[in-house]
Specification:
- By secondary structure, the chain is of the alpha/beta class.
- It folds into two domains: 20-207, Spore Coat Polysaccharide Biosynthesis Protein SpsA, Chain A; 262-500, Alpha-Beta Complex (Spore Coat Polysaccharide Biosynthesis Protein SpsA, Chain A).
- The chain has helices spanning 31-39, 75-82, 105-116, 160-168, 178-187, 210-213, 223-240, 275-283, 304-312, 330-338, 361-372, 406-409, 424-430, 439-448, 476-500; strands spanning 20-25, 45-52, 65-68, 89-93, 100-101, 120-129, 132-136, 155-159, 192-203, 262-268, 291-297, 318-321, 346-349, 355-356, 376-384, 390-396, 420-423, 453-464.
- The strands form two sheets. Strands 1, 2, 3, 4, 5, 6, 7, 8 and 9 form a nine-stranded mixed sheet that branches. Strands 10, 11, 12, 13, 14, 15, 16, 17 and 18 form a nine-stranded mixed sheet that branches.
- Strand 11, helix 9 and strand 12 (318-321) form a beta-alpha-beta unit.
- Helix 2 (75-82) packs across helix 4.
């Protein structure tokens, strides 16, 4: 840990026409020249600083000032930037690719910043994908928007006093989490304002599908980055009164009597291609106790219902439910299952696309409940294709979870892992939101605020990826809807935890 001297906020002449100091990374070729040319079209910009490493080949465009520093993701770089600011506003362009500004784009951002007094203004943009310009809307920031990969776009306008105040508060020398730390600290005192207008155009550099991107935060090669992000988020939660100590309510497993020890729950709609495999992988389980399988068939219109009826006729452990309601999402189907009188003491998840890895999964999960005295278990899974061959990123084990800080870090990451299993009396009190995305995450966050969540780090099931997976490949509007909802879940939980702490 490094400690820094405070940077004095300089006198800023707000009557000057030049209201903005601009910082961007230097890159070779025509990229920087092109971006600088765009920025100079705005009369509000005073000085353009180019951030570069010590390199004799650096040739700065005329009129720009070079800053010898590393990346914007390092705390030391932000300290250097803060020392150079002499204007009321600070503009960061965090990409090295060419920037194309819309007409009067910076002036519009400045106008909104002045009207809202926001600490940060960010906007929608256009992205060029495969030579085609496409709209790229982003979403509103909430108090619970704690994901370190929250998409602000690449053009960020800060109030300089908010920027400098936040940098002054930085007392940890991050190598990868500085921009994340910056916006968390700015958000503690200022509004982060989303202007839903596409004001600039940039190249799209990440061409992967949404189904591939969602696993970046569990990729082992990103582990050190994730440790820093967790540290920054933890400090933020402590500052705002939402951090929870590692103190948990004990679980008593003798609260009620149940017909069986465990129930596997599978919500399903129109999965004739996969449901038989999923059901067979459950019914082939070997345990020291009785269990059953509750399949909530949400009014399938293909052969799913027929296939389930056929299996149920030969195995009484399969409880096939077709709800009376027509308004249930996956969460609503789960609530139907756990409230059913035949539900067991523990409710264990399996998606209708997937299969258990062997015949010991149910026994392993139930043993973990007793060994770890927890109200919820999160396991590990392996990504495979339909030939059951492992595909990237392979094993998803969520090792970022720690017993002491997992429930706090859960507010930063985008999921808790799978398969999930619940102590039924606790889940019956909480229930799941009636949605088909994020419902399990919401329940897990709520449970983790009071109870211990146990972990199993060996793979328990095979997650078969195919085009019909719910998150395989989503357009930007669906991605934004999902991210907004999960941020809302985090906001609700954040407020609940503040209340638990007496705030």
């Amino acid at each position: 840990m490094k400690h820094y001297c405070l940077i004095q906020i300089p006198y800023m002449n707000t009557n000057s026409e030049k209201n903005i100091t601009c910082f961007l990374p230097y890159s070779t070729g025509e990229n920087t020249k092109s971006t600088v040319k765009e920025l100079r079209l705005c009369s509000e910009i005073d000085t353009i600083y180019l951030i570069h490493k010590d390199n004799p080949n650096v040739v700065l465009p005329e009129g720009c000032i070079g800053l010898l520093a590393n990346t914007l993701q390092q705390t030391s770089t932000l300290k250097i930037l803060a020392g150079e600011i002499r204007t009321p506003y600070t503009l960061l362009y965090i990409q090295s690719l060419p920037l194309q500004l819309g007409a009067y784009a910076i002036e519009r951002m400045l106008q909104v910043a002045g009207n809202t007094k926001a600490g940060l203004v960010y906007t929608d943009c256009y992205k060029i994908r495969g030579g085609v310009q496409q709209a790229h809307p982003v979403i509103d920031y909430q108090e619970g928007s704690l994901r370190d990969d929250f998409d602000f776009g690449s053009l960020l306008l800060y109030r300089s006093d908010a920027f400098i105040e936040a940098v002054n508060a930085m007392d940890v020398d991050y190598r990868s989490a500085a921009l994340y730390d910056l916006r968390l600290k700015v958000s503690q005192k200022y509004r982060l304002f989303h202007l839903p207008e596409p004001l600039y155009t940039e190249l799209e550099t990440d061409h992967r599908s949404s189904g591939e991107k969602i696993f970046d935060y569990v990729d082992p090669k990103n582990r050190q980055v994730q440790i820093e992000m967790e540290q920054a988020c933890t400090h933020h939660l402590k500052t705002i009164g939402a951090w929870l100590k590692p103190e948990f309510t004990p679980v008593s497993f003798s609260e009620e009597r149940f017909p069986v020890e465990a129930s596997v729950v599978i919500p399903v709609r129109n999965r004739e291609k996969t449901i038989e495999d999923a059901v067979r992988s459950v019914l082939e389980q070997e345990t020291q106790f009785p269990f059953n399988l509750i399949v909530v068939d949400n009014h399938s219109t293909d052969r799913t219902t027929e296939l389930l009826q056929k299996i149920a006729a030969t195995d009484s452990r399969l409880i096939h439910i077709i709800p009376n309601r027509n308004d249930l999402g996956i969460g609503g189907c789960w609530n139907t299952a756990i409230m059913h009188p035949q539900c067991g003491k523990f409710a264990i998840q399996l998606d209708s696309d997937d299969i258990y890895i062997d015949n010991q999964v149910i026994q392993t999960v139930v043993d973990a409940f007793y060994e770890q005295n927890c109200a919820m278990i999160v396991g590990t899974y392996r990504m495979v294709n339909f030939k059951l061959e492992e595909i990237p990123p392979g094993i998803i084990d969520h090792r970022e979870w720690t017993p002491d800080n997992g429930r706090n870090n859960a507010l930063r990451i985008n999921g808790l892992g799978a398969p999930r299993a619940f102590y039924t009396p606790v889940l019956r009190k909480i229930k799941l939101p009636n949605t088909s995305y994020g419902e399990d995450y919401a329940a897990g966050l709520s449970i983790s605020s009071r109870y211990r969540i146990g972990r199993i780090y060996k793979p328990l099931y095979l997650c078969r990826r195919w085009d019909d997976n719910s998150d395989a490949s989503l357009d930007i509007h669906k991605q934004n809807a999902h991210n907004s909802y999960k941020d809302r879940i985090r906001t609700i939980e954040l407020l609940a935890r503040k209340r638990l702490n007496g705030d």
